[in-house]
Specification:
Number of strands: 4
Structural class: alpha+beta
Strand order of the largest sheet: 1-2-4-3
Oligomer: single chain
Strand content: 15-25%
Distance between the termini: 52 Å
Mean pLDDT: 90
Helix content: 40-55%
Length: 108
């Protein structure tokens, strides 16, 4: 029975722009293989630990949270201004995301 006879799907409803295809699947497999063979998860974990340790020593940072290289920084002080810090960071060449008035997100 064709889809036009079931009333469930009509022409064009079963396709997708972002659906799987052989090229997309091959690219995804290559990425996953690279992540595994080059130890990128372990590398991100080690760099995250080092970055967390070093960031915690900077005056004005009250707390560092997160895992790997996806980190959050809670700013210290009575009136922290994450937007101002993000602006200064951008001027210095670093892109950070002020997610609350007192917290920055690092996602290198």
């Amino acid at each position: 029975v064709g889809a036009e006879n079931t009333g469930l799907l009509s022409a064009g409803q079963h396709g997708t722009t972002f659906g799987g295809n052989p090229i997309a699947c091959a690219a995804a497999l290559a990425v996953l293989t690279t992540i595994e063979t080059e130890g990128l998860i372990d590398h991100a974990r080690r760099l995250g630990e080092q970055l967390t340790t070093e960031l915690a020593t900077i005056p004005g940072i009250a707390e560092v949270t997160g895992q790997g290289l996806l980190l959050g920084l809670r700013l210290a002080g009575d009136n922290p201004d994450a937007k101002a810090v993000a602006k200064r960071a951008l001027e210095a060449g670093f892109i950070v995301n002020p997610v609350t008035p007192e917290r920055l997100r690092l996602a290198p």
